[in-house]
């Protein structure tokens, strides 16, 4: 029997997982919000379905036909998790043991004043988005327990990768070096997210939660400075967080300060990070940028 993955939300991380499995001969289906993106997915061999917070899938039976694995990257909203809200009962009748992966966030831990957190620590979210994630995780684990589904949660740190990284921020002129003493963030390259999810599919542990981050939680201003060094430009001047003008969304990221521990993905899933720190990740992205510019005939 051919395996089939269904992705609720074919976004930055989920698409990489889907593409890897598609190359291995899996059937892939997934959701998007727009007809234009649906057409693009179809052109890449992915069966598309339209889905949004206020728009359930019209033919959910057709969507889930033959599905062996489900990946959820749609974020929770005011109604809670939109997938469970609209289609929890449909997923509940999937065959017992069906693998379900939920892409969550390290925001479920809240602020630890720079201390370490593991998957065994209490979830103490500090903001509305974090509280919604905790509720969504609980809803998925509850669904799994009640209906014999093999649910795992992947708590993702700050995601970066091709087209979405500090190099692009610097090149666009949007880079700022905001300094809040003692503040660190954990990060993860999108390719390492994909390999972690793929490792879980190969050796599932029903009910497990995994911290998905690299080995080096670091101050955000250091990442921008490193990106500037690779690009050969002067870094922007440091700005004190207390006096910096930030949007409410940007300021909210500084509410949480913690070092996320990733030991479980290494010991349990055998993950060997391709990019164990931001230096390795940005260098690889810089090399890709140079290769692209060379192929396009651009000067350095």
From TrEMBL:
Domain NAD-dependent epimerase/dehydratase as annotated: residue spans: 102-213
Q: Please name the SUPFAM superfamilies in this protein's record.
A: NAD(P)-binding Rossmann-fold domains (SSF51735)
The answer on whether this UniProt entry bears the keyword S-adenosyl-L-methionine reads no
Keywords for the protein's UniProt record, in alphabetical order: NAD
At the top level of its lineage, which domain of life is listed? Bacteria
The record, for Pfam families, names: Epimerase
The UniProt entry, under InterPro entries, shows: Epimerase_deHydtase, NAD(P)-bd_dom_sf
Q: Which CDD domains does the record match to this protein? A: SDR_a4
Q: What is this protein called?
A: NAD(P)-dependent oxidoreductase
Source organism of the structure:
Thalassospira lohafexi
């Amino acid at each position: 029997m051919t395996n089939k993955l269904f992705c609720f939300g074919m976004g930055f991380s989920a698409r990489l997982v889907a593409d890897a499995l598609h190359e291995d001969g899996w059937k892939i289906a997934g959701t998007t919000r727009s007809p234009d993106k649906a057409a693009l997915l179809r052109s890449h061999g992915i069966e598309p379905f339209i889905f949004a917070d206020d728009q359930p899938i019209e033919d959910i039976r057709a969507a889930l036909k033959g599905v062996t694995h489900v990946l959820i990257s749609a974020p929770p909203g005011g109604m809670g998790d939109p997938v469970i809200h609209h289609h929890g009962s449909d997923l509940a009748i999937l065959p017992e043991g069906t693998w379900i992966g939920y892409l969550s966030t390290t925001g479920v831990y809240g602020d630890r004043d720079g201390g370490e957190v593991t998957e065994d620590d209490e979830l103490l979210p500090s903001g509305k988005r974090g509280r919604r994630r905790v509720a969504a995780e609980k809803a998925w684990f509850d669904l799994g327990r009640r209906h014999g589904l093999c649910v795992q949660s992947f708590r993702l740190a700050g995601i970066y990768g091709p087209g979405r990284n500090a190099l692009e921020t610097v090149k666009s002129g949007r880079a700022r070096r905001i300094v809040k003493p003692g503040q660190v963030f954990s990060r993860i390259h999108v390719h390492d997210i994909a390999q972690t999810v793929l490792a879980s599919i190969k050796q599932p542990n029903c009910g497990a939660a995994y911290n998905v981050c690299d080995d080096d939680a670091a101050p955000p201003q250091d990442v921008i400075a490193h990106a500037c060094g690779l690009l050969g430009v002067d870094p922007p001047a440091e700005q004190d967080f207390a006096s910096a003008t930030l949007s409410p969304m940007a300021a909210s990221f500084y509410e949480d300060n913690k070092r996320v521990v990733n030991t479980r993905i290494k010991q349990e899933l055998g993950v060997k990070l391709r990019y164990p720190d931001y230096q390795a990740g940005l260098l690889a992205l810089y090399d890709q940028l140079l290769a692209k510019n060379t192929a396009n005939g651009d000067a350095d």
